[in-house]
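Dear U.,

For the methods section draft, I wanted the exact inputs and outputs in one place so we can describe them consistently. I've listed the two proteins in the order they'll appear in the manuscript figures. Please don't edit the token lines directly; just add comments below if something needs changing.

First protein:
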Amino acid sequence: MVSRIGVYVDGENLVVPIQQELDEEVVKQLQSDVLERISLKHLTGLVIDLSGTSVLDTFLARKLFDTCRMARLIGARPIISGMSAGMAISLIDLDFNPGDVETAVTLEDGLLRLRDTPKFDLIAQSDDDFDAEGDSFENLVKGSDVIDGDTEPKADDPD
């Protein structure tokens, strides 16, 4: 049986305090648990805190950072906290690239950053949100074709 890492919810954020040495099976189970919890509870933030562990090799670091990227894909803002100077030096010496995952010195700092993140609403939720010059949501949609997420003017559009 694979041991599990305890996680807890703090407001809209999932907190994952790593308090043990990790192996491949534990990390795989952790990825599954984190993504499932974020999805089911519609959480908007994730902090993985490494302050309780002293060893992190490049394989396990890559898996944890990949978990953060997966969390971002399903709508949560991920932060890794508590990485020691020794871990950071070792990972960089081994040419590990953390990519675009945000880091924080402490778990508390990570949670403060998540709590200070502004919540954005949809800019226009109905036709009432547009101005009186005929810019309705329907007119905007009719006026363009969407191809791979980009909008391009229709052929009969004078612009």
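Second protein (the one for the lower panel):
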Amino acid sequence: MITRKQQILLKRAQAEAGLSDEDYRNAIAAVTGMPDCRSSKDARLSDAHLDHLLSFFEAIYWKANSEGGQIFKQRQFWAMRNRRGNTSRDRYTEADLTARIAQAEYQIMQLGFGQPYLDGIYGRIEPYTHRAYLAALERTIAAKKRKLATEAECPFRGFSMPSQVELNFRAAGGGATQNEKLAAYFRAHPNQWLPMPQLAKVITPTGIGAAVHSRVADCRKKFNMTILHRAGRNPGSGLAKSEYFYQLQTSESGVATALQEGQNLL
């Protein structure tokens, strides 16, 4: 399938060559060799088809004009840029490449990657040839299939064991859920500013994907906790900082004392 920009280029070329819609659709069918292909939106159209259509429209334009236009600025520009094979072997090879490219693009789309992904591969081929583009597509398909196969064989790939700090915290009654862990940690460290990276590692072993702000909001709502927040920059390093302060309620003072002494309350 050609891109939206290429479709627009083809329509502009049609207008400049003075072709009616019927002649335009007949030309697509004739040049591509696919009688049922009569639109620039046909998924089977390739870059090779686009090149040949532009060369065809270019020849029509220069038969009726002596001065260049917006698309056809000089004679035989597209014809010289995109020469069609003259032998049966050349024509067979090109048709085979076009079919293989279309099949490879379809496979990549089936793997969950859309047209922008294909455009990215196409744009990195310098200088462009159909063979180079096909090779890039086939390498991509092989790499994606290897990754999927590996993930299927080892569903626990990427799983990391909790750190010793995390295990110790759980043993001290950190709680089963992320919200319970964070609430227990706040109660064990009341009335002090706690940096966000420190809290993140309470929620997850590495701190990655902890969503501290959302967990704090949950603690405020679910456990009726008063948690303050402040943000700014470290005066020494100039780096941004974000800190939270759990304001201990009188009714919870006994809980906080017990947690600080290491008692398991959960």
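Candidate sentences for the figure legend, describing the second protein: Confidence is low (pLDDT under 50) at residues 84-89, 262-266. The chain has two domains: 4-153, 164-260.

Thanks,
Y.
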